[in-house]
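Predict the assembly for these two chains.
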Amino acid sequence: MKPGALLSARHVGKAFVSNGAPRWACRDISFDLYPGEVLAVVGESGSGKTTLLRLLAARLVCDEGSVGYHARWPGHAPSDKLTDLAVMSEAQLRQLARTDWGFVEQHARDGLRMNVSGGANVGERLMALGERHYGQLRSQALDWMARVELDVERVDDLPGTYSGGMQQRLQIARNLVTRPRLVFMDEPTTGLDVSVQARLLDLLRQLVDELQLAAVVVTHDLAVARLLAHRMLVMKDGQVVEQGLTDRVLDDPQHPYTQLLVSSVLTP
Amino acid sequence: MTETHYNFAFLDERTKKRIRRALLKAVAVPGYQVPFGSREMPFAYGWGTGGVQITASIIGRSDVLKVIDQGADDTTNAVNIRRFFARTTGVATTQKTRDATLIQTRHRIPEEPLTAAQILVYQVPMPEPLSKLEPRRRESIKMHALSEYGLMHVRLYEDIAQLGAIARAYDYPVVVNERYLMSPSPIPKFDNPKMHMNPALQLFGAGREKRLYAVPPYTRVRSLDFEDHPFEIERWPHACALCGAADSYLDEMIVDDQGGRLFVCSDSDYCEQRREAGHVGTQEAVTLTNVLAAQDAGDGA
């Protein structure tokens, strides 16, 4: 591992038990992610992409290997050392998850609080961190809604009245309001129509660049990887079959599965 | 008349001892909800089974009991519970706040300041302040454990965004001893400041939810708010029509079909004490033709 990594996975694996025998959803996955870098994880359905993402975000516990994160604890001198997620307390992990990290769910409804307004959704993390000034919460909510190109007039409307694309934007705003350093995205554009996808990708690319975000994006859409990611991992049957710079992997695929994946993309 | 077929205060001694043990824990961790083995009581849930069990566990032969429902001593719930304890314990009962050593209450804290020699027992329908926001019990326990209470402010934010002000008028959430978020039971927010640094021991029981909690004497109790939308209690443009008190919580009673309303103290004992001391109100109903306009005038006052 080179110094300066933000997130580091070492031989990560997770097994689920089916019919009494463990079945590995993903196994022996290693990579480093650096600040400001976007990593795409591609592969077919069932290849273990989402399980990997959940392991990285500490939503699941690794059965094998470990995930280290460059956490900044208040009161501690900054250092290059990574902390193993497995040794962090639940309170620390929850703190990380709502400050330093973001998690954009595939279905916006899973990531939003549907019974409170858009503005309250954006403000929730700030309130969890102790912001107690309504006017400031309000102006932050309006600011972030404008940044993700949502109509600020809709700030007091429930997310259920938003379109799918708007809900996804709101979810992104809600995650970015605390200025995280690392965002996990699980198929962020799946389920949206093509023109909305394009605008959302454009927005994501701009935000990632502007905020110097590191991101792990799980997707089965190679176009998303091409547009957003610097590097990519190709997964099949729970294993990484190929990894490298996005352009290299897509233009010169080495592994037979990657070749198949690249050649099966439809071009109109 | 005292019933002799039942144990003193209805519950058996072992049950009372277990509830007292749970109460000790509740007092030791102010605002923390302690589970307890709630018993079937000869009341329907919602009629104060939690409060009755606490009262039964701590009442002694020398206690003087007062029971309040909505501030009054002569309402159905109060009369029944007072008679229940009179029959099963034979202890003295009173309607005067200052004579009581043990006060069981529903919806109000007496206007007269309590003393260190008194215990206030609240009947609580829903002890979990986060229940409407986070339906998963496991998750809300975790939020209490980690003191993650941002969600409650999301609710208050939503009130201001939709309605212009924090609209919750009763069961207004408080933080006890700067640690635990607590539901003060459905008392009006008018009574919230009385919980702060109160010399009396305050005990809360929820029979159906099988949990109890406590605010020990002289404990800080802070109502949640925003810096730019501070917590405020209700004020009325009227005084009590019977005793002229301008500082008490008023009930509004419609007295005719022309919009005549009588505003009187909700705390019946407080009102009576004042009248005995010679205070007199206007004795007149107020006519409010337009309720909304009157509210606006009230806000401005």
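Chain B touches chain A at residues 142, 146, 148, 150-151, 153-155, 157-158, 160-162, 225-229 (CB under 8 Å). Chain B has eight helices and 13 strands.
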